[in-house]
């Protein structure tokens, strides 16, 4: 609840007088957009991460989230708007998706 209040406060500040940058807002969303953050599967900077190791039909399997640092905005948006087998649906706005994209690309430099 406390994180949600901080996120809503940051959104209010960012949308009126910009006390935080678009990248900072994107980082907040990336870390906790709607209860569980992108960071848990895609890594701290979008580099991708190991989600789970398990056995299926006697063989070892690794479930990994992809590296999303170089994904173009249009592809990121389309991916976030469709259902995935593993990834939750977040119902992010265009502004929120652009902020996350900005954060991921700030991390490159």
Describe this structure as you would to a colleague:
- It is a single chain.
- The protein has 109 residues and is an alpha+beta fold.
- The protein has one domain.
- Helices cover 46% and strands 12% of the residues.
- The protein has five helices and two strands, in the order αααββαα.
- A two-stranded antiparallel ribbon has the order 1-2.
- Strand 1 (50-56) and strand 2 (59-64) form a beta hairpin.
- Helix 1 packs antiparallel against helix 2.
- It is elongated and about 55 Å long.
- It starts with a helix and ends with a helix.
- The model has no long low-confidence stretch (mean pLDDT 84).
**The biggest beta sheet, please?**
2 strands, antiparallel
Tally of DSSP β-strands:
2
Span of the ends, CA to CA: 33 Å
Secondary-structure element order, N to C: HHHEEHH
Oligomer: single chain
What is the number of independent domains? 1
Class from helix and strand fractions: alpha+beta
Query: Which strand-content bin applies to the residues?
Result: 5-15%
Q: What is the global morphology?
A: elongated
Rg of Cα set? 15 Å
Could you give the order of strands across the largest sheet?
1-2
Helix content: 40-55%
Low-confidence parts: none
Q: What is the tally of helical segments?
A: 5
- Please tell me the overall pLDDT: 84
List the SSEs and their pairings:
Blueprint: H1 2-15, H2 22-31, H3 39-42, E1 50-56, E2 59-64, H4 73-81, H5 94-106
Antiparallel strand pairs: 1-2
């Amino acid at each position: 609840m406390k994180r949600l209040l901080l996120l809503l406060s940051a959104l209010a500040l960012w949308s009126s007088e910009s006390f935080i940058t678009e990248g900072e807002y994107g980082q907040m969303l990336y870390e906790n957009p709607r209860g569980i953050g992108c960071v848990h599967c895609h890594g701290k900077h979008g580099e991708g991460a190991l989600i789970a190791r398990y056995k299926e039909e006697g063989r070892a399997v690794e479930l990994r989230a992809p590296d999303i640092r170089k994904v173009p905005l249009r592809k990121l948006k389309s991916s976030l708007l469709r259902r995935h087998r593993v990834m939750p649906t977040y119902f992010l706005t265009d502004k929120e998706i652009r902020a996350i994209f900005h954060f991921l690309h700030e991390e490159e430099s």
